Amino acid sequence: MAQPTDTVNKEKTQKRILMATVLSFAFFIAYDFLYLQPKQELVNQANAQNAVTMEKKNIGTTGTNSAPAVNANSAPVTKTTAASNQAPEMVTTSKIIATIETLKNTIEIDNLGRIHQVTLKEKQYTTEDGERIKLFNLNQLKPLEVRFADRKINEEAFNIAVISSSSKVDATKNITELTLTQILKETTLVKTLKFYPNGHYDISVTSTNNADFFITPGFRPDVLADMYADHGAMLVLNDGTLNIIEDEDMENTVEFVGINAASAFDRYYASVLYNYNTSMAISVMKDSEDSPNVFIHGKNSISLSGYAGPKEYKTLHALDERLTSVIEYGWFTFIAKPMFILLQFMHDYVGNWGWTIVFVTILIKLVLFPLSHKGMVSMNKLKELSPKVKALQEKYKGDKQKASMHMMELYKKEGANPMGGCLPIILQIPVFFAIYRVLLNSIELKGAEWILWIQDLGVMDPYFILPIAMGATMFLQQKITPNTMADPMQQKIFQLLPVVFTFFFLWFPAGLTLYWFINNLFTIAQQYYVNTIFKNARIARHEKHEEEKNHNKTK
Amino acid sequence: MKQIILYLITFYQKYLTVISFGSCRYHPTCSSYAKVQFENNNIFYAFFFTILRILKCNPLFPGGFDYVKVKCPAKNQLNLKFKKIKVKYWKVPVKNNYCLILQHNTTWDT
What we know:
The complex is a heterodimer. Helices cover about 45% and strands about 20% of the residues of chain A. Chain A is α+β, with helices and mostly antiparallel strands. In chain A, strands 4, 5, 7, 8, 9, 10, 11, 12, 13, 14, 15, 16 and 17 form a 13-stranded antiparallel beta sheet that branches. Chain A has a four-stranded mixed beta sheet with strand order 3-2-1-6, with no helix packed on it. In chain A, a hairpin with a 3-residue loop joins strand 1 (about 95-100) and strand 2 (about 105-110). The longest helix of chain A has about 60 residues, at about 1-60. In chain A, about 35% of the residues are buried. By secondary structure, chain B is of the alpha+beta class. Helices cover about 35% and strands about 15% of the residues of chain B. Chain B has three helices and five strands. Chain B has a three-stranded antiparallel beta sheet with strand order 3-5-4, with helices on one face. In chain B, helix 1 packs antiparallel against helix 2 and helix 2 (about 30-40) packs antiparallel against helix 3 (about 45-55). The interface between A and B is medium-sized, with 33 and 29 residues.
């Protein structure tokens, strides 16, 4: 009686697992096509529309421009009323009053003393059409915009042009200063900027008559903001913790104190204002799309450093070691960052990111070698016990639990355990995600090529060669691994795994598939090596046995 | 909290074990061990022992039998009314007033 129900149950589970796999695939594919892609299109459309409305605005309508409000005694920032300090947008199109050339970028300052645009000079930062990358969307909040707490002053400030100490600044060789002065009825605002050849700047802003003001790192660069990586604003607290506010995710204005760095970022680029000597107070307001606009409370004087450009590890590290925390890898930062540093270190010697991934994979494999080797040896040992295992399985056919218990006993007696254990598998997961995040978020790996057809390790393999190779090696690996699986259903699922994985990997970044593929290759090599050792030992034993037989015969 | 964790473990056992299939070096497996821990132990202890167990589940440790161990229930907590109950766990006393927890097997019912 027990036998039929058992098989029915098995079939049920099998079906359920198949269903789950199919459903999860369907979900991912549907999510990609129905949600991510239309959303992307919507964003594009919205951008186009924005541009149109902006043009209209320039013709005559007034926009809204509010500064976060503070209470009169200018203590830490307090409540903000939504409608406070509406200031008309400059109705004329912004005029460029100063252009700064550094080794890394060209910075343009407009007639309100804001950074109008940053154009990256280095060769690797070009668009597909070969044009230099421009960081900012001109319709958004511009970096270094100042807003006054006092409504009247604020309104006036948006209508009076700033005077620049010079219109052309050459900071390619030396640190060069630029002063921007804005004379208003009640106060005079002076921005002193020091541009460094490496593209970053120091800024100090002062206002006379105690006029409270705010300054912003601007809206995030708008080069690549997609659904695959975070974009928005990030605040670095003075205890080192990060606070990330994602785009289109804000409900109310939020206030922070004890901030060392404020960054507005997309996938690869950021505009950062930082000061690691004193802490800043910050208000984060939402814009019309619920995206964060960061305002640093300047009181009547503030000194900061600023950087707008790629989130390149070495560049940021050179500015301030602590500034590297603005490169974020999500939950897995704790492992992704060391992983990146290891990759970068290897890359300095290897010179190609694809080969770097290959070498790092081998390195990880070598570190884990003692673990995996021991597992393989004991697995082979057990293969020699297989008649005993089979007997056990026959004996406890109906009772899985009992069978597994007796198996454990047998392992113990023979001092071998065939299983690799849960830990090695669990360890794989963070390594895997770390590489995934590094591939997604590191500008260094953007457009990194490997050999032949792989032009960009950060996106999927266009010809699906790597995923298929990965599936094939996985299949092969299963084939040569002695397997002690008793249940035919389990075995079937196990055999299905390479197919499932190949499917999953089809759309994964090529670099990740490369990692998995190399990993499989080396597992196969290792397994093959262990297998041959055991085989030779068996043959040797057999020959000895034969020899003895012959010996006895001749006697 | 406990409920959420138990639900997650059950979900893992149902759908995700395929990935780590039959890799555990212990009896009971890591996931069933975790389940028993969370059902029978203080949540902090449960976390601690589960993590310990997973860390030990690699080829450098021998593996084998490793049951959940808890303080034995006090006398007044014992089921002494001799009513018919559905057995889920057996607490088997070992040394020092500690009990091992064995999962009940339905084939034992007859």
